TrEMBL record:
Protein name per its UniProtKB record: Uncharacterized protein
Keyword Transferase applies: no
Entry keyword set: Membrane, Transmembrane, Transmembrane helix
The keyword Ribosomal protein is assigned to this record: no
Species, as recorded: Paracoccus nototheniae
Residue stretches spanning the membrane: 37-57, 122-152, 164-186, 192-209, 221-249, 261-286, 437-455, 467-489, 496-514
């Protein structure tokens, strides 16, 4: 019988030499780093597969009203560019942009509608061309899976492959089936990127020194993509970056945080802002007019009350474009923006030039409202910012049979047919069920984290403690910014509610395996 003798020749476990009997003289070399890489790839693959279970059960990705422009605009923009080249140096008329190009404002008005990222639309288009209609769900699941594995490696650095794979499978299963992660991964909107951006930010600043250079740069790419994909992500990233920069002024925070890596989220923020401006310039060149932004602030203030009172008392002397419609106020902010019923809507039914005027004047309108009713305005905005924390419903997010007219009109025929054959299409009860699962999972996770804090079992030092703190900051900022600048709406906070169960799982891993938490040479 041959005997195998193994000899460790590197202190960092990078290389193992196993020799067979002297008679064979065979030498087998195996890099443990290669083995680590292999099981991490397997962990990512398992996690990605489990996160895609909701889309598999649905037999299609979930879609929302915003999904239509995201799925259509990239292809139309390509056609618009081709028309632009065909016409030479002439500006493509707005009518051509509507038929061959970008999403226009609700009433089919002039210009393009800002707020539906052309960059995310191109990601959806490329994913669909590569993997099919569910390609974007696969891409989003893959990115989140990588982030989960990195976080687990930070929380449990000395884990052996088998226990690590079990922990990965358990965590991804819980996130996919018991939180909002599985739903938003499979939803054709950039919502899930908000949470992935916050976690990437927390990893860079909280555990940047424990990560490899390539990992830090990859996390920066995730943040840059998120900033390009939605304006709200820019607000959250800018706020987190600014608050972190202020915290670095204190010596204790400078020592605790990876201050030298603050340039990574700052650069990602610059990419987001630059990309937004680049799109505005391109749309202006293509259509001859700048994009029209949705007047979220005016809609919120009028729905809240102070804006309505200010409009009705100051008009017509104030000269606001909304003055002729002041008698319709107050109107629910969603109806204000999107309803095409003249009795209940404003922005979507007014003439194109009025749309642009209402959009352009919203900051001036907000300042006037604040001056007229400072206490009511500040109190109302603060109340809505806090209330957004527990608005988690997704009841009206996935399109179902009641939205058939929109689906037929807004999507390509083949896509519309896929949507109509999905599981959720004829089962309207599924969306409220998903909402209840999200609400219960979030409440239980918050209670669990609170309990760990009270019994002093939450990590207080090290990378995991910083990861928890920064992610909590991101959760609160997302709620405050969405609640203040838009209005409390379930989708806005539900998109990142899965982070609480995720943080609870990470917190439970650290105390349980604290004896084994010895940093390794190999970095994620």
């Amino acid at each position: 019988m041959q005997h195998i003798h193994a000899q460790k020749i590197a202190e960092n476990d990078n290389l193992i030499i196993a020799k067979l009997s002297p008679r064979t003289g065979f030498v087998f070399r195996k890099s443990t780093e290669y083995m680590k890489l292999n099981y991490r790839f397997l962990a990512v693959a398992l996690c990605c597969f489990v996160l895609l279970l909701p889309a598999m059960v649905n037999r299609a990705p979930f879609v929302y009203f915003d999904s239509a422009p995201y799925m259509n605009n990239a292809g139309k923009a390509i056609q618009l560019v081709q028309d632009r080249l065909w016409l030479g140096s002439e500006i493509v008329p707005v009518e051509s942009a509507q038929t061959a190009g970008l999403q226009t404002s609700p009433s089919g008005s002039t210009g393009t509608l800002a707020g539906r990222s052309i960059y995310y639309s191109f990601l959806v288009w490329i994913s669909a061309a590569t993997f099919g209609i569910g390609g974007i769900a696969f891409v989003q699941a893959l990115v989140l899976a990588v982030l989960i594995v990195i976080c687990l490696r930070i929380a449990w650095p000395a884990a052996q492959p088998a226990p690590f794979l079990v922990a990965t499978l358990a965590m991804s299963s819980g996130l996919s089936l018991l939180t909002s992660a599985g739903f938003f991964v499979s939803l054709v909107t950039p919502d899930v990127w908000a949470g992935m951006m916050i976690i990437s930010f927390a990893l860079v600043l909280g555990a940047g020194s424990d990560l490899g250079r390539g990992t830090r740069l990859a996390l920066g790419v995730v943040m840059a993509c998120a900033a390009l994909f939605h304006t709200s992500h820019i607000l959250v990233l800018a706020s987190m970056t600014a608050l972190s920069a202020l915290a670095m002024l204190h010596l204790a925070w400078r020592k605790a945080m990876a201050v030298r890596y603050l340039w990574i989220p700052a650069l990602a923020l610059a990419f987001g802002l630059g990309g937004t401006m680049a799109f505005s310039v391109a749309a202006t060149v293509a259509t001859g007019e700048s994009p029209v932004g949705l007047p979220f602030i005016t809609a919120h203030l009028t729905d809240m009350g102070p804006g309505t009172r200010f409009a009705q008392t100051s008009c017509p002397a104030s000269g606001f474009a909304i003055c002729p419609y002041a008698d319709r106020l107050p109107i629910d902010w969603i109806d204000f923006l999107f309803s095409k019923n003249p009795q209940t809507g404003i922005f979507a039914v007014v003439p194109p030039d009025v749309q642009r005027a209402i959009s352009d004047e919203q900051i001036r309108f907000a300042i006037g409202t604040l001056i007229a009713e400072p206490l009511a305005t500040i109190a109302g905005l603060a109340r809505d910012g806090i209330a957004q924390l527990w608005h988690l419903s997704v009841n009206d997010v996935p399109l179902t049979a009641k939205d058939e007219a929109f689906v037929v009109e807004g999507f390509e025929p083949q896509t519309a047919e896929t949507i109509r054959t999905s599981t959720i299409w004829s089962r309207a009860w599924l969306a409220p069920t998903i909402s209840r699962v999200i609400e219960i999972g979030t409440a239980v996770s918050f209670a669990g984290l609170l309990f760990l804090a009270l019994v002093k079992r939450l990590p207080r030092h090290g990378a995991v403690a910083r990861l928890l703190l920064i992610c909590f900051l991101g959760l609160v900022l997302n709620a405050v910014l969405c609640g203040v600048f838009a209005s409390p709406y379930g989708r806005f906070q539900a998109r990142i509610a899965w982070m609480l169960p995720f943080l609870l799982a990470i917190s439970l891993i650290v105390p349980r395996y604290s004896d084994y938490s010895v940093p390794e040479r190999g970095r994620p």
